[in-house]
Amino acid sequence: MAKRYGPWEVIRPLGEGGQGQVYLVRDTRNAEAPLRALKRLVNKERLDRFRQEVQTALNLKHENIIRVEEYDLDGEKPYFLAEFCSQGSLRKAAVQSWPLPQRLRLFERVCRAVGFAHGQSVIHRDLKPDNILLRETGEPVVADFGICFATPEGERITLTEEVVGPRHYTAPELEAGRSGVVHPNVDVYSLGKVLYWLTSGRDLPRERHREEPFDLSRSRDPEIFHIYEILDRAIVEDPAKRFQNGYELAEAAAASLNRVELGARPLTMKARQPCIFCKNGEYRLKFSRAMWQVSTQPGYSPRQEAEAALRGLGYFPAGDPPVLILACENCGHLAIFRPDQGKNPSGWDETQ
Question: Is the pTM of this model over 0.90?
Answer without folding.
Answer: no
